[in-house]
Design goal:
The chain is mainly β and about 300 residues long. Helices cover about 10% and strands about 50% of the residues.
Length: about 300
């Protein structure tokens, strides 16, 4: 991790030119929740976080037969935010504060767990009956020390309300979940300054995303392969491309001779530079705060989901 942090440090001699690639991380496969398979570039043993981000999971794409879809039954969260972005499928959410919602294709839920909530994410009854393709992402965003014990909050944005943009040549489209891209500004409010954009590039498409010089930034390749950074390093499906902190923009290209479209998530945020203590669903600043979170959960202080 020390080498990654060194590559990502802000340098006083940086320019406004495009960032170079600091490293490429391959995803690992693991089981989550009730037993659904995810691809995860981080965290893992060699790479624990990417301040202010704590986790990125890609669920699917997987073809699910009727009655076989799985989700994440009741589980607690404290001290961070979860961002769920559905590309296809149908999930229902419930929590211990009485909130309930549903996410379909293209929808986003930005949940600020704050002081603590018990949460469940399960396939909808309709999806369980019909089956289909399940594909989505969950990103964990750390909260700064002063916000870790705020009241839980939800922002649920249907696909129709999420800003989208297309380049003048028609080769690049963007779905702007957080921050700004291609003249479109997100409608979601974030506690920590964040950029989260889903780009789709046809062969020959090129995009340059502006990123403040002090943000940590990466791209995750959803599908296809492309060229990343000022030197055009290759990244492919399931890989996380980390950018060095040596410029104010990141460049992504799908070469003209590519045989398929390129889809990538570009994610960046202002680092908190605070101590991290984490265990399972709790992310705090000290071990004592983690022990307190477990005690509060065991004592029912985070509530329970009413069936």
């Amino acid at each position: 991790m020390s080498m990654v942090k060194e590559a990502l440090r802000t340098d006083e001699t940086q320019t406004n030119e495009g960032r170079t690639v600091a490293g490429i991380v391959n995803s690992m496969e693991t089981l989550e929740g009730g037993g659904f398979l995810v691809r995860r570039p981080f965290p893992k043993a060699s790479f624990s976080d990417f301040d202010p981000f704590l986790l990125l999971d890609e669920m699917g794409p997987m073809n699910v037969a009727p009655g076989e879809a799985k989700g994440a039954p009741d589980h607690p969260h404290r001290g961070f935010e979860t961002v769920t972005y559905m590309l296809s499928g149908d999930m229902e959410h419930k929590d211990s504060s009485g909130h309930a919602g549903r996410l379909k294709s293209g929808d986003v839920q930005w949940m600020t767990a704050g002081a603590g909530v018990v949460h469940a994410e399960m396939p909808s009854a309709e999806f369980m009956r019909t089956g289909g393709v399940m594909h989505g992402f969950q990103l964990w965003v750390n909260l700064p020390r002063q916000d870790k014990m705020i009241n839980p909050r939800y922002q649920e944005i249907p696909s129709a309300r999420i800003p989208k943009a297309t380049s003048a040549d028609g080769l690049v489209s963007a779905t702007v979940i957080a921050g700004e891209a291609m003249g479109a500004k997100a409608v979601i409010e974030t506690r920590t300054p964040i950029i989260y954009v889903h780009y789709r590039l046809e062969p020959g498409g090129v995009v340059t995303q502006q990123v403040p010089h002090d943000y940590n930034a990466f791209a995750y390749v959803v599908d296809g392969a492309g060229l990343f950074g000022a030197e055009g390093e290759r990244g492919a499906d399931g890989q996380m491309v980390m950018f060095a902190s040596d410029g104010d923009e990141v460049r992504i290209e799908n070469p003209p001779d590519a045989k398929a479209n390129l889809e990538v998530l570009v994610i960046a945020g202002a680092p908190l530079n605070e101590p991290i203590a984490r265990y399972g669903p709790f992310v705090m600043n000290t071990e004592a705060e983690i022990h307190q979170a477990f005690e509060d959960y065991r004592q029912g202080r985070m509530g329970a989901i009413n069936s």
